Amino acid sequence: MSWIKIVGIGPGSLDDMTRRAFNALKECDVVVGYKTYIKLINTIIQDKQIFDSGMRQEITRCQKALELAASGKNVCVISSGDPGIYGMAGLVLELSQRQGLNTDIQVIPGISAINSAASILGAPLMHDFAVISLSDHLTPWELIEKRLDMAAQADFVIALYNPKSRERRNHLNKAIEIILKHKAPDAPAGIVKNASREGQMVMITTLSEIPKQDVDMTSIIIIGNRHTFTSEGKMITPRGYDI
């Protein structure tokens, strides 16, 4: 029986791809994915059939994967980071369930961008944290605002995905205004652009200074809680040990 493996390829560098993900890509017949992510793994899939497409064509890619598997092909659907974190896993499983298919589908986890960014910044996620995407393409902005407010009020460490794009230039500013209602302006914050990829950039700053920084869709922002501090260029959120 043919299969679909939804593969997390990690944040970008092949060094951050798991062995399980690597093996899945070597075993499949076809790789389906977003053009940019296909390029990241091109050196290890040159002997595979490729089906790629651009942004906002996720449904098309997942449907194609299901059709290829139904025709007898073993298929890898790739996601950057982890496929179950803002990735393709849910969509493939939803489509398969709605269509009543009996396809063998497996989810192959990967190192997410939040893991990679946190490791580059130091140890900012040592206590409870919330991850919130500022993209309102699939989620109403009013709901995103509510989640930002509640997470800040609860003093979670907050990680922001998709902070700014050409279509959403003011969303980040609005988000910071909401968070500032509950967190101090000098709360430590870190920005990692292109984590584990070519062109990686790292910035340690403060909550109120985030809007002044160079941020785009490839950036991850991590804002500390009231106990987070910086030392020697690293963000550290204490776990609570008595040391």
Structure description:
This protein folds into 2 domains: 3-111, Cobalt-precorrin-4 Transmethylase, domain 1 (3-Layer(aba) Sandwich); 114-236, Methyltransferase, Cobalt-precorrin-4 Transmethylase, Domain 2. Helix 3 (58-70) crosses helix 4 (89-98) and helix 6 (141-153) runs parallel beside helix 7 (171-179). It has helices at residues 19-27, 35-40, 58-70, 89-98, 113-121, 141-153, 171-179; strands at 3-8, 30-34, 49-53, 75-79, 104-108, 122-123, 129-133, 157-161, 188-193, 201-206, 219-223, 229-231, 234-236. The protein has 243 residues and is of the alpha/beta class.
When the domains are counted, the total is 2
The biggest beta sheet, please? 5 strands, parallel
Strand order of the largest sheet: 3-2-4-1-5
CATH architectural label of the largest domain: 2-Layer Sandwich
Structural class comes to: alpha/beta
Any idea what the shape is?
Answer: elongated
Instruction: Tell me roughly what share of residues is in helical segments.
Output: 25-40%
Q: Low-confidence parts, pLDDT < 50 over ≥5 residues?
A: none
CATH class of the largest domain: Alpha Beta
**What's the Cα radius of gyration?**
19 Å
Beta-strand residue fraction:
25-35%
Specify the number of helices: 7
Distance between the termini: 55 Å
The helix/strand series, from N terminus to C terminus, equals EHEHEHEHEHEEHEHEEEEE
CATH superfamily of the largest domain: Tetrapyrrole methylase, C-terminal domain
How many β strands by DSSP?
Answer: 13
Q: Tell me the CATH topology of the largest domain.
A: Methyltransferase, Cobalt-precorrin-4 Transmethylase, Domain 2
What is the residue-mean pLDDT, rounded to a whole number? 96
